[in-house]
Structure of Type II secretion system protein N:
Amino acid sequence: MKKIAILIVVFLFGFIFFALLKTPAAVALNLANPYLPKDLQIGKASGSIWQGRIMQLRYQGEQINNLNWDVSGWALFTGQLTGNVKFGDARNTDEMSGRGDFSYGLFNQAVALN
């Protein structure tokens, strides 16, 4: 009976781990929607919460195209949420573009943008 309980616990942790690992970005955005600003318009999202893309993002009259992000899962073990973002097309002068790194301390809630 003890072996079965251990197997069930291992299975549940494994299931939760892989469910988080494979969570689609569109599902995460739908869950986060009530907490986002009302005038934020988000286009089609693809990929996962770890590495994904939003085709178009509009907020307060500004539009960002091709927003890509890559979040480091390993940094979570140190209490940091880190990653990088890229948006726009640098070759197109009519559109806003940029790239940068971000870091958020899960314990001290400090934000760093580079």
